[in-house]
Design brief:
Elements (H helix, E strand, L loop, with lengths): L1 H33 L2 H4 L5 H9 L11 H15 L18 H8 L7 H24 L8 H6 L7 H9 L4 H6 L6 H16 L6 H14 L9 E5 L4 E6 L2 E10 L8 E10 L3 E3 L1 H14 L3 H4 L2 E4 L10 H9 L5 E4 L10 E5 L7 E2 L13 E3 L3 E3 L2 H11 L6 H10 L3 E14 L3 E4 L2 E4 L7 H7 L1 H8 L3
Parallel strand pairs: 1-12, 3-10, 9-11
Antiparallel strand pairs: 1-2, 2-3, 3-11, 4-8, 4-12, 5-7, 6-7, 8-9, 13-14
């Protein structure tokens, strides 16, 4: 019995040395490659790849045992079918990463194959990190370039951490796909595209598929991950308030092509009743001042007042009007609150660098038009009181609804500060899925062309466009 125990201890000791030795050789191969600046320069996300291996002691992530090789097959299937996400498999080393290569290298255990295995393993990691970044940030994100994404966690997201987390999950593919945007508009497009490749749809044109591709790219540029948000889509002239699984839809008026409404993300902090309107300088100089010069009664007729740089109100006469015309930048204009006010009864405020906001309007007739690109850039919403009521209810401030009703009725100035700001997203999407079918909207600002040019190769490959 003693002899058997001695043999057992010696056997497991030898096995520990062998395995540890193999791990050390593996680590050395991975480490050497990741220390080679010329090799790293050929990777898409070298810093992310290095972080991934550092947390795994520089051992193989995909080729070191049967369980990992099984997971590698799942991962490789995901990259091979990147077209289901509107992406190209060729962006993820499709020539180097093959099932044949995986099966072959997975069965090699001799030292002479370690470098080939290490290269395959690293390319698999970089391909998956690239895929995760592409489905999360898009390929042509205007805010973040590849090197920036590789260097830092952005809004709590980091692809190498997402990959490490996915490797610990039972459903690897599902965990990876969690990196995609959570917005319903994106999910609808993704589901349609996935179904298109799964079963085919002869009624879908290549032009529609191209629209789906470029608008999925746009949606990947959005950082908001909340399931509750106010969403304005410019080309469809719509606002949708997504709250607690419900969706309330409103018509909107957006900016004219020359004074376009910007794409942005922010939060609605508060809204006000009976607002006065501080007229933007561009509107004052280009539109209101010429009217005043032509008609001295224009100010009073439209309830405007002019103020100097100190905030003092100017009495307008021929003398002061000449001075204002010489130096209009030194003056500002406000329109008093009331039924005549351009902002109407309610204005919703959110921080942004463009000086735009969401508001009511006295020109209700514009909501009956099909083309509603009519404003100076701000967004006018139909039935703003209903939206304000829903925001208060969502904010657990139902007791303020009666106060809101009275303030709107009496045109009384009141601020309603939300306890929890609500995300607001303004998008430019020229296709949406409605009742299971793609609906194309006019490209009113002519923004599709530049994105089509960026993605032209992808679209030709995916959808056989000519």
């Amino acid at each position: 019995m003693k002899a058997f125990l001695n043999f057992t201890m010696i056997f497991f000791g030898i096995m520990h040395i062998v395995v540890h030795g193999q791990d050390t050789k593996t680590a050395n191969k991975i480490t050497l490659l990741l220390k080679d600046s010329l090799y790293l320069a050929n990777l898409n996300y070298p810093k992310s790849v290095s972080r991934c291996y550092a947390t795994n002691s520089y051992n193989f992530l995909w080729l070191n045992d049967k369980q990992n090789i099984d997971q590698a097959e799942t991962a490789l299937a995901l990259l091979t079918h990147a077209n289901r996400f509107g992406l190209l498999s060729s962006d993820y080393y499709s020539k180097n990463l093959t099932f044949e290569g995986l099966n072959q290298l997975g069965g090699f255990f001799s030292e002479k194959h370690e470098e080939r295995k290490a290269i395959f393993d690293i390319l698999m990691t970089d391909g998956l990190i690239t895929f995760i970044n592409n489905i999360h940030f898009g390929k042509y994100n205007p805010l973040y370039d590849r090197s920036y994404i590789d260097s830092i966690s952005i809004n709590g997201f980091c692809a190498d951490k997402a990959l490490s987390n996915a490797r610990r999950q039972l459903d690897f593919s599902k965990a990876v796909c969690e990196a995609q945007p959570k917005l319903k508009a994106y999910q609808d497009l993704q589901n349609y595209l996935d179904q298109f490749y799964a079963v085919g749809n002869p009624d879908t044109t290549s032009a529609e598929m191209a629209k789906i591709l470029i608008n999925m790219e746009r949606l990947r540029w959005i950082n908001t991950q909340s399931s509750d948000y106010v969403w304005i889509n410019i080309p469809s002239y719509t606002l949708a308030f997504h709250h607690q699984g419900n969706v309330s839809e409103f018509k909107v008026v957006v900016g004219k092509p020359k004074t376009a409404t910007p794409v942005l993300e922010s939060e609605i902090d508060y809204f006000s009743t009976a607002p006065d309107w501080r007229v933007p300088q561009s509107i004052f100089r280009n539109e209101i001042l010429p009217e005043i010069l032509e008609n001295s009664g224009y100010l009073e007729d439209n309830h405007y007042s002019i103020y100097d740089e100190t905030g003092g109100e100017i009495i307008v006469n021929s003398s002061t009007l000449q001075e204002i015309n010489k130096n209009p930048r030194k003056y500002s204009v406000r329109q008093s609150s009331g039924g005549h006010n351009a902002l109407g009864a309610i204005v919703f405020r959110f921080q942004n660098s463009h000086g735009v906001y969401l508001h009511d309007t006295p020109q209700k007739q514009y909501f009956n038009r099909e083309n509603r690109a009519l404003s100076h850039g701000c967004i006018r919403v139909q039935n703003p009181k209903l939206l304000a009521t829903q925001l208060l209810a969502f904010d657990d401030s139902n007791e303020k609804i009666a106060v809101l009703e009275e303030a709107v009725k009496a045109y009384c100035k009141r601020d309603f500060i939300l306890k929890q700001p609500v995300p607001i997203i303004i998008t430019y999407l020229t296709v949406l899925i409605k009742n299971g079918k793609p609906i194309i909207y006019d490209d009113i600002y002519q923004l599709d062309k530049s994105l089509v040019e960026m993605l032209h190769h992808d679209m030709r490959t995916l959808f056989d466009l000519r």
